[in-house]
């Protein structure tokens, strides 16, 4: 059988559905797909740019024990028409962001305390508010959304990588405000979870540069080298990335790119 190596289809003229992936080569998808293991969530200042400078990852607190996070953005859009035309058009408003986090309740900072780390780093004593958020100034457990503490906004960063340490994407949720906190206890459960819902102003795209810097380029190891530079890639595909066969449509397709990104 001729040409049994899968290729990537970038236009319909090259489409052979039994011998091709769409858009990109997927033979190494298990290595380059996003996964919860390779996702990092951090809490930080309310804006990514503070006094004209980007904040650093050293100014953010990684949030552990997170079991679930969902981020949603929606933009109010309404259809409209005009007299004299049979065609419709749309009017749109500002995008609105919401997020939710579910986290294991363990000894140490609870979820509300972790999210409000920006205020604590700034030196705010939570016992000085009219409505306190913690029993003592250095409390690890915060509650009471009536406290003035929770009128202070914060920010959150979410970083995505793959199994071989490539940056897939990252965004910073600015001006987060908590509107729901819940905790539930039930007989027979094997864990207690805290849940927080919040609103945020925008999800600003950022780079993950400076977070988890890769170690020295040592090809005797698998990660953190990129697939085309590592023995792992060679062992699986029998050659370097540039040795992969070209796509049927010629060399100007993404089949020659191990990431399928052109």
Give the CA-CA distance, first to last residue. 28 Å
Mean model confidence by pLDDT = 83
Global Rg:
24 Å
Largest sheet: 8 strands, antiparallel
Q: How do the helices and strands follow one another from N- to C-terminus?
A: EEHEEEEEEEEHHEEEEH
Beta-strand fraction estimate: 25-35%
The helicity comes to: under 10%
Q: Point out poorly predicted stretches.
A: 215-219, 240-262
Shape: globular
Q: Count of DSSP E strands?
A: 14
The SS-based structural class is: mainly beta
Helical stretch tally: 4
Detailed description of the structure:
Strand 11 (154-161) and strand 12 (167-184) form a beta hairpin. 8% of the residues lie in helices and 31% in strands. It has four helices and 14 strands. With 262 residues, the chain is mainly beta. It has a domain at 39-70 and 97-212.
Provide the descriptors you would attach to this structure in a database record:
262 residues, mainly beta, 8-stranded antiparallel beta sheet, two-stranded parallel ribbon, globular, disordered C terminus
Summarize the topology:
Elements: E1 7-9, E2 20-22, H1 29-32, E3 39-44, E4 49-50, E5 53-54, E6 61-62, E7 66-74, E8 77-80, E9 89-92, E10 96-104, H2 111-115, H3 117-121, E11 154-161, E12 167-184, E13 193-200, E14 202-205, H4 231-237
């Amino acid at each position: 059988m001729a040409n049994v190596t899968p290729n990537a289809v970038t236009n319909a003229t090259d489409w052979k559905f039994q011998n091709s992936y769409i858009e990109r080569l997927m033979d190494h998808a298990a290595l380059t797909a996003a996964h919860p293991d390779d996702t990092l969530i951090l809490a930080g200042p309310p804006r990514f740019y503070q006094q004209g400078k980007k904040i650093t990852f050293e100014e953010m607190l990684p949030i552990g024990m997170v079991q679930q996070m969902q981020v949603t953005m929606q933009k109010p859009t309404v259809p409209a028409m005009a007299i004299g035309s049979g065609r419709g058009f749309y009017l749109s408003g500002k995008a609105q962001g919401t997020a939710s986090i579910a986290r294991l309740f363990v000894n140490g900072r609870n979820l509300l305390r972790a999210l409000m780390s920006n205020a604590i780093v700034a030196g705010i004593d939570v016992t000085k508010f009219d409505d306190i958020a913690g029993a003592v100034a250095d409390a690890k457990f915060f509650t009471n959304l009536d406290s003035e503490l929770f009128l202070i906004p914060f920010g959150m960063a979410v970083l995505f990588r793959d199994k071989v340490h490539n940056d897939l994407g990252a965004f910073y949720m600015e001006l987060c405000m908590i509107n729901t906190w819940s905790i539930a206890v039930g007989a027979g459960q094997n864990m207690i979870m805290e849940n927080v819902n919040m609103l945020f102003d925008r999800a600003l795209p950022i780079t993950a540069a400076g977070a988890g810097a890769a170690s020295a380029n040592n090809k005797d190891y698998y990660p953190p080298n990129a697939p085309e530079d590592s023995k792992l890639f060679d062992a699986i595909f029998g050659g370097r990335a540039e040795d992969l066969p070209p796509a049927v449509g010629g060399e100007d397709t993404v089949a020659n790119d191990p990431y399928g990104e052109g």
